[in-house]
Protein: LacI family transcriptional regulator
Amino acid sequence: MGVSLKDIAQRAGVSLATVSNVVNGYRPVGEQTRRRVQQAIDELGYTPNLSARHLRRGRTGIIALAIPELNNPYFAELADAAIREAAGLGYTLVMESSGADRDLELLLLDGSRRHIIDGLIFSPVRITRDDVLARTGTVPLVLIGEGVYDVPHDHIAIDNVAASRVVVEHLLALGRRRIAFIGAGAGQDRQSAQLRLRGYREALAAAGLPVDAELVVATEQFGRRDGLLAMRRLLALDTPPDAVFGYNDLVAIGAVRAIGEAGRRVPEDIAVAGIDDIEEGRFSTPTLTTIAPDKEHIGRFAVQRLVALIEGAPLAPPADLHLPFRLEVRESTGPLGDRHRAVG
Amino acid sequence: MGVSLKDIAQRAGVSLATVSNVVNGYRPVGEQTRRRVQQAIDELGYTPNLSARHLRRGRTGIIALAIPELNNPYFAELADAAIREAAGLGYTLVMESSGADRDLELLLLDGSRRHIIDGLIFSPVRITRDDVLARTGTVPLVLIGEGVYDVPHDHIAIDNVAASRVVVEHLLALGRRRIAFIGAGAGQDRQSAQLRLRGYREALAAAGLPVDAELVVATEQFGRRDGLLAMRRLLALDTPPDAVFGYNDLVAIGAVRAIGEAGRRVPEDIAVAGIDDIEEGRFSTPTLTTIAPDKEHIGRFAVQRLVALIEGAPLAPPADLHLPFRLEVRESTGPLGDRHRAVG
DNA sequence: TTGAAAGCGCTAACAT
DNA sequence: ATGTTAGCGCTTTCAA
Structure:
C-alpha cells in the first residue's frame, strides 16, 4: 500500500482530521499547519485512496455512459465530449454497451452496477416508457437520445420527428418524389426509429404524397451492412426510389455503397441523406447530407445534469430538453455538377 | 446505504464470514447453510459493496485502456473487444485518452490514477523507451501498438515494418513506381510512424527504387483531414505519385477524398492503401486496401495478460508479441475494372 | 483551530 | 464447517 493520511499526520505532527481538512478544505486550517501538512504531502507523494473515500462517503466517483453500440462513431464522438466533461468535474466515466438488447437494458436501468457507479447516462433503444416508470433502481439517471419520453428524469435529445421532416422536405425540394426510408426497425420497439419514421411520414403527407409501403424498409440493426442490404432490396423494386433517407449516417453510407455497386450514381440517380453528422460522412465519396446534432453539447450537458443530480444540487425539476440541430447539405443530395467541391 | 453482508448474516442466522464465503467461494460451505444464505441474498437483493471490497483487498477491479485518440475507429473496435474480455474476467475497463500528448502520456505512465486502477493497457505514441524505463509508477502495465520496444513489459503489436513492406510490395507488384507515404510524423517521435516509414523504405530499396523525399509527407495528426491536406500537396507536385500508402486507414481515406476532389481516379490514376482495417474502409467508395491486424485478438489478449499480472499468476516473463496480420486487397488498389464488386 | 474516535462493508487470519 | 475479530483509509461527529 502507498502513503496514507496517517503517514502524513505523523510526519506533520498533526491529527488525521487536520490532514483531511487540508486535502478537502471542509473547514479552515491555520496557515502554519496547512504549510507543514502540505509539505509532508509533497515529500511523501500522498494521493487519497479513493476506495476508502468512497466507502466512507457512499459514492464512487464513477459514472457510466450506456449506449447501444460501442463502435458506432456517433457515440464515440459523444463519449469523447462526455469523458472530458466528467474528468473536469472529478468523475471517471465508464462506457457500457447494451448491445441494443432489451434484457441488458433493463439490467442497466435497474442498476446492474449500482455499487460501482454514482449515476448513469443512458441511451436506451429497446425499453419503453413503462419500463422506466417501473424501475426499482435508484441511481441518478439522465436519458439521452430518443428512446423514451415523458418520464420523471432529465432527458436530452434532438427533436427527431422535426429533424426527419427537415431531411425529407429537403429531398422533396430537390424534386424527388419516390423517397425511401431505411431503418424502420424490425418489429422491436426501437422508439427512435418510430420517431424518425413519423417525421418521414409527416413530411410526405404535408407534400400531399402517399407513403408507399414498399419504400419503407425495416432493418435488424443500424450499421453500414444493414443499410447496404436494405438498399439492395430497394434497387430490386420495379420502380426504385429516387431518394433515400437513412435512419442514421451508417445506414445511409451502406446505402450509398449499394447504389454504387449497382452502377447507379449518388445523387444523380438517387439522393441519400442520414442523421448524426459523423466525421466519416464529411470525407466520404460523395460526402453525406445529414442532420447535425450538437454532440459536444449533448455529451457535456448530460454529464453536468447528472453530476448536479448526484451531488444533490438544488436544480430545476426533470426536464425534456430538445437541443437544436441543423441540416448539412452535402454532395449526396447536392445539386448536380456539385461533386467534389473541396471539403475540409 | 443498501443491503450489507451483516443484514444477510442476521437474516440467515449465520456469521459474516459464512456469507462472505457463499458469495466468494473461498472456502467450503455446507449445503444447508448455503441454501439459507442464498435465499436471504435473493430476498433482500444483496450485491457486494465494491468500494469496501476494494479497500480491503487493495484492488479496485478497474483497469484502464489509454489510447491516443478516442474517436479513431481502430481503437473503438479494439476497445470493444477489450471491454468484453475485461467484463468476463470481472473487471471494469475505463478508457483514457492521451490526446497524443507527451506530457499526458508521461502522467499516465507514472500512474496518474494509481489509486483507481489496478492495471493499465497503454498505447503510447509520443514517449520513448527511456521514458518507460525511468517510470516510477508501479501499476501493472501492458503495452500495445508500436510506440516502444525493448522494455520489461508485455508488449503486443503487429510487426509494423513487415506490414508496411507488404503494402508497398503490393503497390509495386501493380506496377506503380512513384509511391508516396503520408503520415511520417512531424518531428515528434511517433515511433509507429518511423517504423511504417522504415518498412516503406525497405520495400523500395529491395525493389531497387530510390526514396524520393518529396513523396514522403509528414502530418501533424493522423486523421482524415491530415490525409486530405497531405494529398493535396502531393497532387501539386510536378510529377504526382501513382500510389499512396497512408500511415493508417483514416489518413488513406482523407487521401482518397483529395484525389477525387482533384478529378483523379482511385485506383486508375493513383492507388491508395492504409493500415488498420476499420469497417469504414470496407464500405467506402472505393473500398480500401489495408493491413488487417486481429483487433479482437489484440484487445482480448492484452486484457488477459494484464489481469494475469494483476492477480500475480505465475507467468512467462514479459514478452514482445507479434501478432499476425494479413493484406486485404480491395478496390483502392484493385485491378482496373474491378470497381464495385459487391461487398458485405 | 484542532484532536479523538467511531464506523463505512468487507476479507482473511485465527479460533473453534 | 463455521464463528470472531482486526483493520483496510477515510470522513465526520463530538469534544476541547
User: Anything to note?
Assistant: Chain A has a mean pLDDT of 90. The longest strand of chain A covers residues 62-67. Residues 14-18, 21, 27-30, 33, 52, 54-58 of chain A lie near DNA strand C (CB under 10 Å from a C1').
